[in-house]
Design goal:
The chain is built from eight helices and eleven strands. The strands form three sheets. A five-stranded parallel β-sheet has the order 2-1-3-4-5, sandwiched between helices. It has a four-stranded antiparallel β-sheet with strand order 6-7-8-9, covered by helices on one side. Strands 10-11 form a two-stranded antiparallel sheet.
């Protein structure tokens, strides 16, 4: 998934981002509300982890603008305010979930994963196609019962191809979901990841290139 973390405490923001990257998500970070709105206007995010008390543009206003613009991103609001009225206010602005500080990173990651499932059409918990089995929860991939060790990026690319259910996925779509904003779109990162993925999955090849369009697992 593509996740935007919006938090004005850099150490906390970077820690959240690293934890979510370990969960095989592509993560961008913004340290104020204005930067968050700018990134959300450029990138399609599945989930926005949004601190409420932000400089430049308050988190409430960020949430209101995301919802008002029809963004498909699910919003997980973070705040130090634990009163019921604060939670009700946050949810009434359009937030999908609410987590008070301090929080446990595993719980935050689980909530992000749950919101991400709601941001796209429902998919089975275990993905299967062409003899490949991918279990997102266990981070495991098998081909014809053979375990296939994959890097985080390879795993993310394969998951997107399997979720497409035979449809073609463009390089741009894969770049959007598996890499963050710091990746140069002209580096050939997607092509290299697909090449390595094919090699690890073995013969016969299952990832098909559709020239000028993208990739698919037919």
């Amino acid at each position: 998934m593509r996740v935007l973390v919006v938090e004005d405490e850099p150490l906390l923001a970077d820690a959240i981002a690293e934890w979510l990257r370990d969960e095989v998500h592509a993560v961008d970070v913004a340290y104020d509300g204005a930067a968050a709105l700018e990134r959300a206007g450029v990138n399609d995010y599945d989930v926005v982890v949004l601190d409420r008390d932000l400089p430049a543009v308050h988190g409430d206003e960020v949430c209101r603008e995301l919802v008002g613009a029809g963004s498909a991103a699910r919003v997980l609001m973070l705040t130090a305010a634990a009163e019921v009225t604060d939670r009700v206010t946050g949810l009434s602005l359009g937030a999908d979930d609410y987590l008070t500080k301090p929080f446990a990173f595993p719980e935050l990651a689980a909530r992000v994963q749950a919101l991400g499932r709601r941001s796209r059409p429902a998919a089975p918990p275990v993905l299967r196609r062409a003899g490949i089995t991918l279990d997102p929860a266990r981070r495991e991939v098998f081909r014809d019962s053979r375990y296939v060790p994959l890097s985080k990026k390879e795993f993310a690319v394969l998951a997107e191809l399997l979720r497409a259910d035979g449809a073609v996925v463009s390089s741009e779509q894969l770049l959007e979901k598996a890499w963050d904003e710091h990746t140069d779109p002209f580096t050939g990162a997607v092509r290299l990841a697909v090449l390595k993925l094919r090699r690890k999955l073995g013969a016969p090849p299952v990832v098909e290139t559709v020239t000028g369009v993208g990739y698919r697992i037919p």
